[in-house]
Amino acid sequence: xxxxxxxxxxxxxxxxxxxxxxxxxxxxxxxxxxxxxxxxxxxxxxxxxxxxxxxxxxxxxxxxxxxxxxxxxxxxxxxxxxxxxxxxxxxxxxxxxxxxxxxxxxxxxxxxxxxxxxxxxxxxxxxxxxxxxxxxxxxxxxxxxxxxxxxxxxxxxxxxxxxxxxxxxxxxxxxxxxxxxxxxxxxxxxxxxxxxxxxxxxxxxxxxxxxxxxxxxxxxxxxxxxxxx
Length: 229
Known about the structure:
Number of helices: 4
Radius of gyration: 17 Å
Mean pLDDT: 93
Order of helices and strands: EHEEEEEHEEEEEEHHE
Structural class: mainly beta
Strand content: 25-35%
Largest sheet: 8 strands, mixed
């Protein structure tokens, strides 16, 4: 958890809802997807620089690669960061302190285990407003290629224990930010206590329904993935 999500928000929706000032020159960021899978390129929103404070929409590979990693393949196992250990775990603690981001989404998928196997559900805000997952991001460079090697930007989604009715589907859920908590999460100067208050804050009101099992394969990427059965 969370291992699949959807983002079919348009460039203008992202700019308006998240108050983005600068967008990356990466057209694929705005291709709609109804089945985003680990290691794929995704959109993230990062705070501006001290001399240019506007929020920025950037591209990152889903699966965080710590700066000290020897091999970027580790990212496939780092798609989520558990909030309970985020401040201590070496893979995430530096990014938690210095590099927090938003991973925008339309909704996400979760699987419930039952007598007939695993049944996927599509989970989304009741009002279908954009979702803001709390995320972290990192920069990695292959030192074997020298100083001119390109930077790899990667991201992970922060998760927490499932709350309320969501516990019926799965024991974990992504940390989903409201407009109020979003500002605090992106604040570079936020202290650890404030950040954990953000993680513990109520999520937006959610709705969910069963969807087809085809969403289990990233090759199946179509609007039908989110249609109710």
